[in-house]
Structures are given as C-alpha cells and as structure tokens.
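haha ok so turns out i had the wrong file open the whole time. this is the CORRECT one, sorry everyone. sequence first:
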Amino acid sequence: MEEFHKVRRLPPYVFEQVNRLKASARSRGADIIDLGMGNPDLPTPKAIVDKLCEVVRDPRTHRYSSSRGIPGLRRAQANY
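then structure:
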C-alpha cells in the first residue's frame, strides 16, 4: 500500500522520542522517574463511566460545539 505523501511531513510521535531518550539515559545508568504518558493502573470509577454513557446517548451532544467553544465551559476553565 502506498503511503499518503502528506504523512511524511508529520512530525515524529513525541512519546516515541521521549521513550528513546529515556532508554538512552537508562542505558547510561540514569535513574529515571517516568512522568510521560500515563497508563492508569486503576479502573475508571463507575459513576464516571455511567455519566459518560448517559451524555453520549443524548442527541444534543451529537454535534460539534461552536467555533468559539461552549460559553459555560469556557467560563469554568477561565475561573479554574
């Protein structure tokens, strides 16, 4: 299969670069505390999964937000 030509212009995947740097440092004996891409070791709380399912089933959420964002969400983020 031929690769789409624009794919070659994409930058390298940042976490792959970070992984190479970590491996190189570890091979030199560096003690690395990995704060990179996290993988949860605990399941998502049921209340969060239930709420996500509820919201996904609501037809009002089946569209894009406005280009300026959701006003209430923007206010909450600004006040955080």
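The radius of gyration is 20 Å.
again sry for the mixup
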